[in-house]
Amino acid sequence: MTPNQVIVTNGGSEALQMAFTVCLNPGDEIIIPEPYYTNYNTFAKLCDAKIVTIPSDIKTGFALPPIEEFEKVITPYTRAIMICNPNNPTGYLYTHEELLKVAGLVKKYDLYLFADEVYREFCYDGHKHFSVMQLEGLERNVILFDSVSKRYSACGARVGCMVTRNSEVYAIAMRLAQARLSPPSFGQFFAEAAVDTPQDYFDAVQAEYVARRNVVVEGVNKIPGCFCPMPKGAFYTVIDLPIDDSDKFCQWLLTDFSYNGATVMLAPATGFYVDPEQGRHQARITYCICIEDLKKAMKCLEEALKVYPGRTR
Amino acid sequence: MTPNQVIVTNGGSEALQMAFTVCLNPGDEIIIPEPYYTNYNTFAKLCDAKIVTIPSDIKTGFALPPIEEFEKVITPYTRAIMICNPNNPTGYLYTHEELLKVAGLVKKYDLYLFADEVYREFCYDGHKHFSVMQLEGLERNVILFDSVSKRYSACGARVGCMVTRNSEVYAIAMRLAQARLSPPSFGQFFAEAAVDTPQDYFDAVQAEYVARRNVVVEGVNKIPGCFCPMPKGAFYTVIDLPIDDSDKFCQWLLTDFSYNGATVMLAPATGFYVDPEQGRHQARITYCICIEDLKKAMKCLEEALKVYPGRTR
Predict the structure, then answer these.
(1) CATH assignment of B199-307?
(2) pLDDT tens across A254-300, in order?
(3) How far is CA B5 from CA A239, B83, B142, B147, B165, in A?
(4) Subunit contact A179:B155, Cβ cutoff 8 A
(5) The CATH number of domain A3-194 is 3.30.230.10
(6) B12 closest CA partner among B78, B88, B80, B81
């Protein structure tokens, strides 16, 4: 990459907003595997664009749905495919093969490929991250979103970037960038220094996250009626729960339940689906707290499900 | 004001962008006295809104044009009047009486009143700033933009805010704020500490700016063929020059002219008008450099105008 392919932004969020604004017209459609990061909705809505989802399945760990499913929903209004890799909320890490399939479709229909790779340092069990920037022949199509927030646990720094080899998209995005003047100076000072972080920091972080993930996956799967796939990246997992309604359950945990003076906070998965019904029995767990607390949280969840009035099985 | 009337933003720029996004629909019109801060254009364009200008006159120091001129251009699409006070680029400080006239029109047609008051600490010669927030009966209409950038000379901090008593506008803006997560933490730490800056800092800054302004006003007005009004706020002034084209002249200063090994950089006023022709013989001077450099700059401008090939009178 060269500097004139990168625009530094107010976090990854602004990078998303800029790319959507530049690339999408009212009525345009973006195809995204579901569940997906909720905030894409607002940025799409700001352009009057429509998010069209392809359901991924908890049983496969939320792997890429068959590429034929994507092709089925392509219309004259389809303008982009969007991938979050590793995925928020599922923790799924798309493989090289899966990305080649997406690339084929992007090329065939000359779409944009938006890729949110802010979690790309967080890949586990020896799996390597394959970036959309390594896909060949998609120079005009690919727009990457990155951020220092996750890499250096610095989400308040608000330094991200939009990266593209498409000079036309870049030029228009630069006009938006000029209008809002600049991303934050203090965060940029931090980010420049953070680039020198030695590899052993990341090795230690990765080992810690693998241990945390294992506590969550084992903890959830030993609770009767629950299922947690084995995520290979990020620090999230979406689990299946024996409950009537995840919105109600997650709220009940906070307002009506405690175990040893504590409770557990989950994100109901309803917000990660276009149709909230699809996430009615699912919740997202974020495992960026320490192992001791995660163990307590798993115990807490287990006890909660024993007494939750809306338990279903 | 209460906390739930203030949204902290990525600088004043994001506050503008949010308010425009929330309040303006495609085709809506905003009335702004001209010349005006260029970047409003991009934020209006993002909403497909149209900026309608009322010319203000350099001979009056760019005072508020007669309120009848505003009323003449009101259409069913007019949604807002926008004021920058003290003004960028003119340095004009609107009086209480002028703002009451604007308020009357805003009330009569139930418009939004957008007010960019980021320079409000910079008022000179004993003149006091009158904020739109002090206007009565406009609780639903007024949206204020503020920033720490100018107040504390901290433009890279990127901490501004949008302030409104209109709870509906606030609620929608908060959704946009949630989507982009947060303004920068480091900048917020700075801003919170900066609030304790003692008054004598501002007194000293104000005295310094008055001295700088006087150097510029006197310097420009003694150059044959030039005219500079007496700005009462901010740190800008728009001057009239005996030249063919301010874009050409300002570029020529940088590429073809030097005096004692230096030159002077001005902003052509063409970019501050909807019709660039209106600013063809004007340029904006920013006097936020030290007095010694400003004196050199005035001398440099004087010498430049003696030899500029496009000199007109």
Answers:
(1) 3.90.1150.10
(2) 999 999 999 999 999 999 999 999 999 999 999 999 999 999 999 99
(3) 38, 20, 11, 15, 6
(4) no
(5) no
(6) B88
Evaluated on CA atoms B11, B13, B16, B22, the torsion sign reads negative
- 3-state DSSP assignment of residue A271: helix
pLDDT higher than threshold 90 for residue B99: yes
Q: How far is B175 from chain A (nearest CA, A)?
A: 8
**Taking CB atoms and an 8 Å cutoff, what residues of chain B touch A267?**
none
Q: Does pLDDT of B1 surpass 90?
A: no
> pLDDT, tens digit, for every residue of A154-191?
999 999 999 999 999 999 999 999 999 999 999 999 99
pLDDT at A1 over 90: no
Q: Is the pTM here over 0.90, yes or no? A: yes
Min Cα distance B14 → chain A (Å) is 7
All CATH 3.90.1150.10 domain ranges of chain B, comma separated, are 199-307
Distance from CA of B80 to the nearest CA of A (A): 20
Condensed to tens digits (0 to 9), the pLDDT of residues B231-249 reads 999 999 999 999 999 999 9
CB within 8 Å of B269: residues ≥ 6 apart: B35, B89, B238, B246, B278, B279, B280, B282, B283, B284
- All residues of chain B having their beta carbon less than 8 Å from the beta carbon of residue A178 are 39, 42
Taking the C-alpha atoms of residue B132 and residue B138, their distance in angstroms, rounded to an integer, is: 9
Cα B32 from Cα B73, distance rounded (Å)? 11
Q: Chain A: residue nearest B25 by CA? A: A46
Q: Under an 8 Å CB criterion, which residues of A touch B?
A: 10-11, 13-14, 17, 21, 39, 41-43, 46, 155-158, 175-176, 178-187, 190
Report the amino acid identity of residue B149: S
**CB atoms B184 and A181 under 8 Å:** no
Q: Please say whether the beta carbons of B259 and B303 come within 8 A.
A: yes
Q: Which residues of B106-121 are buried (b: 16+ CB within 10 A; e: fewer)?
A: beeeebbbbbbbbbbb
The pLDDT tens digits for B180-233 are 999 999 999 999 999 999 999 999 999 999 999 999 999 999 999 999 999 999
Kind of pairing, strands A112-116 and A142-147?
Answer: parallel
What are the DSSP calls for B110-177, one per residue?
A: T-EEEEE-TTTT-B-TTPPP--GGG-TT-TTTEEEEEESTTTTT-GGG--EEEEES-HHHHHHHHHHH
pLDDT for res B306: 98
Spatial contact of A102 and A64, defined as CB atoms under 8 Å apart: yes
Tokens for A295, please give them. 């163990």
Q: Cα separation of A52 and B113, whole Å? A: 38
Mean pLDDT of the region B60-78: 98
CB contact under 8 A, B39 and A179: yes
Contact A156 B14 (CB under 8 A): no
CATH 3.40.640.10 in chain A, residue ranges = 3-194
pLDDT, tens digit, 9 for 90 and up, residues A5-25? 999 999 999 999 999 999 999
